[in-house]
Amino acid sequence: MEIELAEHYGFCYGVKRAIEIAQNHPNSATFGPIIHNIDEINRLKREYNVGLVEDVNEAKEYDTLIIRTHGITKENLKFLKKEGKKVINATCPYVTKPQQIVEDMSKQGYTIVIFGDKNHPEIKGVSSYSVDKDRTYVVLDESELIGKALGTKVAVVAQTTRKPEDFKKIVAALSVRVAELRVFNTICNATFENQEATAKLAKRADVMVVIGGKNSSNNKQLYSIAKSFCKDSYHIENEKELKEEWFRDKKLCGIAAGASTPDWIIKRVIKKIEELRG
Fold first, then answer.
1. Which of 156, 193, 219, 263 has its CB 3.0 to 4.6 Å from that of 212, i.e. a possible disulfide?
2. Which pLDDT score is estimated for 207?
3. Domains along the chain?
């Protein structure tokens, strides 16, 4: 059985930057998981003593706090600075962009539509930058726009890890309802490249293994794409989850990995697959 990596996989620029920031600030803590990969978070704790806090009350124990790649709410950021904490902002620049757009457009009187998961930390952060919460809507598909009081001016942004074709559906639904529509494509290029590469490989593979945190939107999207083209697709966090029967009578095993998956985990998975295939 041949093993082939997708043309684009693993750490994106924003994640690489965040990990470097964490490694350069030992004995600090990240506000929220810096990336959606528990193995990498544990490595930072083990090798650099970088802790993890989930709310502002826990944050009081640390002098230096690193903001997660997904960003945090404007209110929490303001609180940390008011408390006199040294705040290191590791928010991905691709996430900072929609934060700035939402703040600017809402100040100009636009209704804000955010295409994404309202429960995801990135979207919680982005939506917090709107100056008018009553005219800010977070939707996952165009049906959720029905009945919304949009007004005449709308600005729309997207969660960085969403599929471009789904974003187009939101834009199309809005374009026939409002007089003025400002569209900001805030989907990350690295996300798009990973998704395209995964689809390309999954069309040829007998079995696909998608590596990355199961709470990561990025990885969930890759797995969904892989599964749509290759029925024998599996989403794992590390090599311990691999099963020998997945690879029986297979000729090509494709490997995809999300933007928050480190190289050292990918290498371990490949090594384990090589051992399982004999």
1. 219
2. 98
3. 2-9+189-276 (3.40.1010.20), 13-91 (3.40.50.11270), 94-183 (3.40.1010.20)
**Given 4, 58, 122, 180, the catalytic residue:** 122
Write out pLDDT tens, residues 231-269: 999 999 999 999 999 999 999 999 999 999 999 999 999
122: annotated active-site residue: yes
Instruction: Give the tens place of pLDDT for each residue, 156-168.
Output: 999 998 989 999 9
DSSP code per residue over the chain: -EEEE-SS-S--HHHHHHHHHHHTSTT-EEES-SSS-HHHHHHHHHHH--EEE-SHHHHTT-SEEEE-TT---HHHHHHHHHTT-EEEE---HHHHHHHHHHHHHHHTT-EEEEES-TTSHHHHHHHTT-S-GGGEEEESSGGGGTT----SEEEEEE-TTS-HHHHHHHHHHHHTT-SEEEE-----HHHHHHHHHHHHHHTT-SEEEEES-TT-HHHHHHHHHHHHH-SSEEEESSGGG--GGGGTT-SEEEEEE-TT--HHHHHHHHHHHHHHT-
- Distance (Å, whole) CA 111 – CA 105: 8
The predicted model scores a pTM of: 0.87
CB atoms within 10 A of CB 179: 8
Q: What is the structure's pLDDT at 278? A: 63
Report the pLDDT value the prediction gives residue 143, as an integer from 0 to 100. 95
Q: Check residue 192 and give its pLDDT.
A: 86
